[in-house]
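Contributing: when you submit paired examples, paste them exactly as shown. First protein:
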Amino acid sequence: MDSGKQLSGNLVLAVFTAVLGSLQYGYSLGVINAPQKVIERHYARSLGVESDDLTGVSMEPGNSTELVELHPSVVMYWSLSVAIFSVGGMVSSFLVGFVADYRGRIKGMLAANVLAIAAGLLMGLAKMGKAHIMVIAGRAVMGFYCGLSSGLVPIYVGEISPLAYRGALGTLHQLAVVTGILISQVIGLDFLLGNDAFWPLLLGLSGAPAILQMLLLPLCPESPRYLCIMQGKEEAARKSLKRFKGEYDTSKDIAEMRAEKEELMKEEKMTILALLRSSVYRQQLVVAMMMHLSQQFSGINAIFYYSTAIFERAGVTQPVYATIGVGVINLVFTLVSVALVDRAGRRTLTLIGLGGMCLCAIAMTVGLVYLNTYSWMSIVSMAAIFLFVSFFEIGPGPIPWFIVAELFSQGPRPAAIALAGCCNWTSNFIVGMFFPYVEVLLGSYVFIVFAGLLFIFTVFIYFRVPETKGKTFEEIAVVFQGKRKGANTATELEQLKSSTEA
């Protein structure tokens, strides 16, 4: 069907509008890093514990403030400002299914935007009250919003995308995330907004995309699958399909949704607990969780944490710009993934990405161990960082977010995305909290831990994850369940087996 092959204006608008939530998520992830020292100084003033040493330190680029010992209360409040974001995301990720099913995809995203704007105002006006309390509150609310957004966006985009473009459009979530991170790194530079005068504005801008999204969402059609399967509104689903695809015969699409609804009605309501207990979806759930664990425990966040220190040790005079260079590489290779994901396939790109990252982690370890022995090892270390990020964005970065929506049918999909999202946020929190301690313990050998984990994830995906490229949700279910009710089961199963092996 030709209409399934083309990208209509309404589809482009809907996907663009949805991924504004992902842009906001990326911005919020990255924005807290650049102005750390400036905000810590303000916290110290706000708490009345600022030392003479601290006030005398210049905040000019290149001057180190690392040697100044901060008051324990400043350290505590700063750590809370960073960590509370992940805690908010962990909590709200459990609500994704409820919001998606009871409010709908569009109304769910609209309602969530109120949280983002409130969070932006709390942080933007931080200097008008107790800065540490307002920033922590704002970060908690923003984390809560991002937990919802990182679930609702892949659900909506996955459901409205034509089969031929489902991978590429699904990858746009991650593209928007890394774009948000890069924007926050650039405007967080000292001479722009990452200074004592403008840091509240820098943090407050994390709510800006929500305003644009609120204006555009009413123009976007609701998911036809949600309307037909969850709401039973076939006529509304037909209208939505035509808005996405233009004038065409919707009977085939509606018949497929009707069949999925009939299957869904035979099952009990798929809550998170029911999904955890279900033996039917166990294989899909294990794959979904492992995909998200491989994303966070790959060491990518540790790289962003550690890259500035490595660049400093390698003799880079302005390591912040090298870190921004890593952000640019991040963006470029996410674009590569968008171009390749519907050609090379999800499984292939994930395997290439994880395998490449494993080799880079080993190279990085060698580079760090011999950095003081051979000067050229600094080049090895830096090259390993850039390649590590490149391999991450080819597959392990974008694919886990949308493959969960592909692995599950309409009924268990919101619960599965909620569980996978919680898994992602929790592992993100664990890496953020414990990496500094592991780094102190292992020193230059810290990335060997990630190399070992990456090897395990690569082996798991090679043996357990099927290719979902070009398959309908029903066909993907057949791969896992090994049977399908109706005609031609054996023949179709053999075709699917032959297409997913090797």
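Second protein:
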Amino acid sequence: MKNNRLYHQLLQWDAYFFNFLRMSIFIVMAWIGGLKAFHYEADGIVPFVANSPLMSFFYKNADHKVLNEDKKLVAEYTLYKNQEGKVIKKNIDWHQKNGTYSFSYGLGTMITVIGVLVVLGIWFPKIGAVGAALTFLMSLVTLSFLITTPEVYVPNLGGDGVTPQYGFPYLSGAGRLVLKDIIMMAGGLVLFSDSLKKVIRP
């Protein structure tokens, strides 16, 4: 009897659980979207954007190849990486010409708007459905980086011996970050379904 009462109480909390998911997605979107206004975050997404057939056209130098110090032909952006927390003017100047920062501002705005649409679903199911659908699509694009971006896998850098784990399926820090978007994708689908139910059966 007690278990039955607890079961019904949990069912009544169902709406709160969905709204907590909405708020969670909003926090992630607003925080990450807001950080896109800062150079270090804009620099960090360059490998993803430059290698993506869906987004590389936003950069002026995405397809440029140059010789590095080892005389190997590499993507030009690899020579202008700024380590997080480190400021190198030469690299910043290159990114400004590349369109790195202007693209990041636009992307950050879009991500923040999607987050706002999702959380508005608490009160406006139709708007929430749009936000949830966009969350799913955005996550789908992000997960495509697992196919297009070399930096998502551990590179074979050698050292004192042969690198034992590199390439697929050994995810780098960037790759592990991307893979987590599969949870965001699932959350978008769940909220899309919940919002549609509220629209159809208010």
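If you have annotations for the second protein, write them as plain sentences, like these:
Residues 46 and 144 are 15 Å apart (CA to CA).
The chain has a mean pLDDT of 93.
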